[in-house]
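Q: Convert this sequence to structure tokens.
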Amino acid sequence: MNSTHPNGRSLPHDDGSAPGRHENAAPAPSAPPAAVTFADLGLPDRLIAALAAEGVTLPFPIQSATLPNALAGRDVLGRGRTGSGKTLAFGLAVLARTAGTRAAPRRPLALVLVPTRELAQQVTDALAPYARAVGSRLTAVVGGAPLSRQTYALRKGVEVVVATPGRLTDLVVRGDCLLDRVSVAVLDEADQMTDMGFAPQIADLLDRVPAEGQRLLFSATLDRSVDRLVGRYLTDPVVHSVDPAAGAVATMEHHVLHVHADDKQAATAEIAARTGRVILFLDTKHAVDRLTGDLLARGVLAAALHGGKTQPQRTRALARFRTGQVPVLVATSVAARGIHVDGLDLVVNVDPPADPKDYLHRSGRTARAGNHGSVVTLVTPKQRRAAARLMSEAGVQPRITRIRPGEAELHRITGARVPPGVPVHGT
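A:
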């Protein structure tokens, strides 16, 4: 039996079952057969031509599964790990659904909510060529960037807004953005947004969107917090879960390296000195800054990424890491969530995360789109019991190896090398 939310949307019955119950929801039809090209999915010709111009011809599984339903106006719940192609899955649907309609000043037609500034810019950049193809205006609304520039864009009128919940809330309260014309609302990386405490802001924003509008929710995991958003805001959603969780990705190797506490700093520096890019994850901003300084002193060019950095500093660090100018990114989990870096084959948990979801999100930076990647977690003797429990809860069976700095096994697994030893300057 269905109940009704105050905004008038029908709610699925909450039977109290475990998170992820939507994957077996009775109303959901089976996934459509795999498409050969985007033309089979019902996209407008202009978008198909733009995809071809960008060299994108074959849809990823999550795009093949969700686009037909999204283009038909259905609410969609899509589960797929980071890097599975979710941005185009919802982005092409949004642009196709709003193409040909001009937004009034301050009244966008579509809204995409994301957890971080970096992901908002990434989504905006990824969708820009397709927005141009259909004549739609697209803008990012994020904290840490000039409010006046965002206000100016909204007052001129934009069809699609990609936003972080905090900054969008500020603009809505100021009256610079009105959500009463939004026909398509997307929640991207919904689990990360709720983990970061944005659930109340998301609810407030979605309550301002017309109840009859379309909702598309994409998430790497479906837990109870996401379940509540689905129950409240999605009407009879079509459910597609087409990509394995990060722990089950066949092209991803998981390693636990047992290391003595006294050897950990030297081992980390040797891993960072490898040929090729690597992300090193730590728990706190202070630890990130301390390790970055140590690496620079040892001759390893590294950049720090955490919430204490200004937006220009974060943007510069990411840009230089993506291009390979800086091969080592030292980051906290929150700062690096949702970041897409092509060709990254190694992620290192210098500090093992406390939560299995954090482990899977960190792991999702590598082995993207079918590429190979390795996730390495450094574990001291005092951390072994907690690390074993973490891996079990994350559904991961890692290869466990005892290592010491300078040993062949550390090089074999990570490509570790002795750091140059000549101090370098950071960026």
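The chain is about 35% helix and 15% strand.
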